[in-house]
Amino acid sequence: MAKVAVIIDDLFEDVEYSKPVEAYKKAGHEIIHIGVKEGKKVYGKKDNTEVIIDKAAKDADPEEFDALLVPGGYSPDHLRANDDAVEFTKKFAETNKPIFLICHAAQLLVTADVLKGRILTGYKAVIQDIKNAGAEYQDKEVVIDDNLVSSRHPGDLPIFIEETLKKLN
User: Fold this and answer.
1) Could you list the pLDDT tens digit for every one of the 169 residues in the chain?
2) Best CA proximity match to 89, nearest among 1, 6, 2
3) Known catalytic residues?
């Protein structure tokens, strides 16, 4: 089964974390939480979900993982301000392993400068960021561009989860 890194920080969109992670665990995949500081507790926007960071981004090796999930909310914006999180994301993208983005998640990859020439979707507030990064934006429930799977918002979760599970299996 796959080992999925979930890079996450405070104020993530609860369901964009909990629903995919629940589906991945049910399918037998292992989840490892990556963040700014190992052992830190981070909370979702709705304060319903608590996550404990398993490994600091500075200590995480992308080679250890089979896929990367980036939930949306304010978490990607917080992470893009952290050099270690950006560097981990950039190195992970260089492996060409599956990356799963939903909502505002593209912000982190914009800062990591790994979207040029890619095709993806995301929340309407990040459309210009995506285009400015040299990527093509498509307004669809899910966009699959080789190893990159992206969706716009929580309403797209069913198809997002379906397509990301295909990549994991």
Assistant:
1) 999 999 999 999 999 999 999 999 999 999 999 999 999 999 999 878 999 999 999 999 999 999 999 999 999 999 999 999 999 999 999 999 999 999 999 999 999 999 999 999 999 999 999 999 999 999 999 999 999 999 999 999 999 999 999 999 8
2) 6
3) 103
Token representation of residue 91:
């190195």
What is the dotted CATH code of the domain comprising 3-168? 3.40.50.880
85 vs 168: CA distance, rounded Å: 23
**For residue 42, what are the contacts with CB-CB under 8 A and spacing of at least 6?**
8, 9, 10, 12, 35, 50, 51, 52, 53, 75
The ranges assigned to domains in the chain are 3-168
